[in-house]
Amino acid sequence: MKALVTVVSAAALLLLATGSASHGRPAADAPCAGQIHTNPGFERGTTDWTAGPRIVVLGDAARPAHTGRAYATFAGLDVTRSDLLRTTVTVPADCDLTVRFWVRTTTTETTRGDYLNVGLAVTGIPPKTRFSLAFDGGAQWRQYSMSSGTATTERTATVSFLASEAAGNGVTSFDVDDVTFTLG
After folding, report:
1. Phi (first) and psi of residue 156, to 5 degrees
2. Which of 13, 26, 27, 99 is deepest in the core (most CB within 10 A)?
3. How far apart are CA 47 and CA 113, in angstroms?
4. Pairing of strands 56-58, 155-165
């Protein structure tokens, strides 16, 4: 009986020793990976976005979305006004946020009077306009990208699209689609 207890005790110690080597390490933090916005392509309208009253989210056979059936459109009325669309996401500590988006511009304008400013504001960093797009952006969808950088603390990042239109210069519409928020 004593030999059996000794064998069982030795086996238990062996199990504990080998088990603790693989299970005794602290758990690794979740990787900084993946899309974190729930409505990047506007397929659910302006859900999870703050939109001005004239932001139209639509699908149109003559002006199709980049992907899916919906996109946000700004300006296009030849009146003096501005439109704002923005959203805020949380960026975990030690993660970098990359924001990619697609823009298409249709216009009758010949001088720079209408524009779309795209900004990124991150906790601890002054807000900054990353892109200022004008009438000459092109009628085909073009992709743009911007990044937050990493920090040792959790932060918030706000992405904003501000379109400004001046009357009498011609009509410019800025369409925005597939705004992805990817952690890396």
Report:
1. -110, 150
2. 99
3. 30
4. unpaired
Alpha carbons 165 and 158: distance in angstroms, whole number? 23
58 closest CA partner among 37, 42, 40, 39: 42
For residues 58 and 70, what is the distance between their CA atoms, to the nearest angstrom? 5
> In sequence order, what E strands does the chain have?
34-35, 50-51, 56-58, 71-75, 81-91, 97-107, 115-122, 125-134, 142-147, 155-165, 172-183
∠ at Cα 89 (127, 125), nearest 5°? 25
130-158 per-position pLDDT tens digit: 999 988 888 999 999 999 999 999 999 99
**Which tokens is 12 given?**
């238990």
- Asked if 162 and 50 touch (Cβ cutoff 8 Å), the reply is no
Which one is predicted more confidently, 123 or 14? 123
